[in-house]
Amino acid sequence: MLRENDATMTNKYQHILIIDEENEGLVAILKEETVGKVTMARQGSVWSGLQYLEKLHSKTDFPDLVILSWDSSSKDAERFLKIYQATFYLRHPKTQIILVSQESQLLQLKRTLGYQFIKTILPNPLPTHLLQQALLVA
What we know:
Helix content: 25-40%
Strand order of the largest sheet: 2-1-3-4-5
Distance between the termini: 20 Å
Structural class: alpha/beta
CATH architecture: 3-Layer(aba) Sandwich
CATH class: Alpha Beta
Number of strands: 5
Mean pLDDT: 77
Order of helices and strands: EHEHEHEHEH
Shape: globular
């Protein structure tokens, strides 16, 4: 739970999209910690996330934060980031993405990714306190 003086986070994100089949518990954690909408893309994970964003692309309810699971054995997350940059980033430049990845992959990801919309990269499994810190950092 957040302390009272951490309440600034409650207004920071109005809509969070989670694209991660393994961390379904994030929805409950984020609903407790934020005021706003938390959506989980389940089926097909990355591709259902893109379909969801496409539906909201021209609406005012576009997520202001996306939490994306990065699996090194699949190129889907990398393709998602390329498609996101080409399709959504110019229209929604304030939306940020948090990548969740296995710790052994973090250093390599930090070196190779140069996307401006990536807020941070967190380890998988995702400790709640690290997620809270990432949400509080501007």
